[in-house]
Automatic annotation (TrEMBL):
<dbReference type="Pfam" id="PF01966">
    <property type="entry name" value="HD"/>
</dbReference>
<keyword id="KW-0808">Transferase</keyword>
<feature type="domain" description="MobA-like NTP transferase">
    <location>
        <begin position="5"/>
        <end position="159"/>
    </location>
</feature>
<dbReference type="InterPro" id="IPR029044">
    <property type="entry name" value="Nucleotide-diphossugar_trans"/>
</dbReference>
<dbReference type="GO" id="GO:0016779">
    <property type="term" value="F:nucleotidyltransferase activity"/>
</dbReference>
<feature type="domain" description="HD">
    <location>
        <begin position="221"/>
        <end position="312"/>
    </location>
</feature>
<dbReference type="InterPro" id="IPR006674">
    <property type="entry name" value="HD_domain"/>
</dbReference>
<protein>
    <submittedName>
        <fullName>NTP transferase domain-containing protein</fullName>
    </submittedName>
</protein>
<dbReference type="InterPro" id="IPR054703">
    <property type="entry name" value="Mop-rel"/>
</dbReference>
<dbReference type="Pfam" id="PF12804">
    <property type="entry name" value="NTP_transf_3"/>
</dbReference>
<dbReference type="InterPro" id="IPR025877">
    <property type="entry name" value="MobA-like_NTP_Trfase"/>
</dbReference>
Length: 381
């Protein structure tokens, strides 16, 4: 099955008082971000319908290996007319089309992969992404629908045309809020810009929603909450002396670090998942929580804080490091290779602990340990 991408960017952007396709977020024009959304999921045949300021868009995408389709009557037509122009050009060369307006540039790889998998599996006529019960972009439309949509009168736009296939279409839940991007006005643009540029900073509620979406058991969620508490406390104490830890980032990474705990190689699998959702900075930290690169062992950063914090928690309880590693050694006392690996992790963990204490001081560290155990401060004054 060949799935093509169809992007419509022919309009005047009159309500924006700017030209949307070339407005930048993270130093990239929206049209480039939209192309990248499709390409990350392996969609290579990408077609863009242009009209107003066509030459400017062409210059912008000249190195992107995309096909340009012209709507020369852009002043007197609507988005659906541009959609039909594009569909007419590509209909004989694909089995389905992924449709995106030119300003919906931040749909995650996870979402598009999910839709592609569904249309392969189910042969549904149209597959839509849904975030918290609200339908968004992009729909993937089977070639079975092409003739009807090309002959549809355009009432209520593409949405009106696709309603004909409602009974044989499928809505797929995704945790990706960027499927709902709507940027007709400047304030909407600035909101999307802010949300995307701060996408690595997730609230506790957003993290819990993500974990719930992936059916992570409460026991693992509670483990993550305790690890988050420890990592946040350590980071705050470290930053009082040296501002070297991104607190918001470590909070997100620590509560999400075991999102794929029930799978083999869960650190890598979880990191891959988070990357596909667009959380690449969180993923980078999560990937190393089971095994640090050698060069990281001597530094204090978000990766080493999560690695260390995770070693201090079994289920949702703080544990003594010596006791934890001794129990592991006892469990594998007949396997020298596993024991050697356990000892390496133990030495790494002690090295990180020593580096933390060198920054925050032993008294501060002991106060934190007492807090994690649930002891009251006044008992130790």
């Amino acid at each position: 099955m060949k799935i093509s991408g169809l992007i419509v960017a022919a309009g005047l952007s009159s309500r924006m008082n700017d030209f949307k396709p070339l407005m930048e977020i993270e130093n990239k024009p929206l049209i480039i971000n939209t192309i990248n959304s499709l390409r990350k999921s392996g969609i290579e045949d990408i077609n863009i319908v242009v009209g107003y300021r066509a030459k400017d868009i062409e210059r912008c995408v000249k190195n992107e290996n995309v096909n340009i389709i012209y709507n020369n009557d852009y002043n007197n037509t609507f988005m659906y007319d541009s959609f039909k122009l594009g569909l007419e050009k590509i209909k004989d060369n694909c089995d389905a089309v992924t449709f995106l307006p030119g300003d919906v540039g931040f749909v995650s790889k996870y979402t598009i992969d999910l839709l592609v998998k569904e249309i392969y599996k189910d042969k549904s006529k149209i597959v839509y992404p849904v975030y918290k019960d609200v339908m968004g972009h992009p729909p993937i439309i089977s070639s079975i629908c092409f003739d009807y949509l090309l002959n549809y009168n355009g009432k209520n736009g593409l949405k009106g045309g696709m309603e004909y296939f409602e009974e044989c279409s499928k809505k797929i839940d995704t945790p990706d809020k960027f499927i709902l991007c709507d940027m007709d006005y400047k304030e909407e643009f600035y909101k999307v810009k802010h949300d995307f540029e701060n996408r690595q900073i997730l609230s506790l509620e957003e993290c819990i929603y993500l974990l719930s979406y992936f059916h992570v058991p409460n026991s693992i969620i509670n483990h993550g909450k305790k690890v988050k508490e420890i990592c946040e406390d350590l980071s705050n104490s470290i930053n009082k002396n040296k501002k070297i830890i991104n607190i918001d980032l470590i909070k997100s990474a620590s509560i999400l670090h075991d999102i794929k705990r029930q799978e083999k190689n869960h650190a890598d699998v979880g990191a891959d998942l988070l990357e596909s959702l667009g959380y690449d900075k969180i993923a980078y930290i999560v990937r190393s929580h089971m095994k640090l690169k050698n060069e990281m062992e001597d530094v204090i950063n978000e990766n080493t804080i999560l690695y260390y914090g995770d070693k201090l928690v079994v289920e949702d309880e703080f544990v003594d490091l010596n006791k934890r590693f001794q129990e592991k050694l006892n469990k594998y006392n007949d396997n020298e290779e596993i024991q050697a690996n356990i000892m390496k992790k133990y030495k790494t963990t002690l090295k990180i602990k020593s580096n933390i204490i060198s920054i925050i001081g032993r008294n501060e560290y002991e106060k934190l340990e007492n807090k994690w155990r649930g002891y009251k401060d006044d008992l130790f004054k």
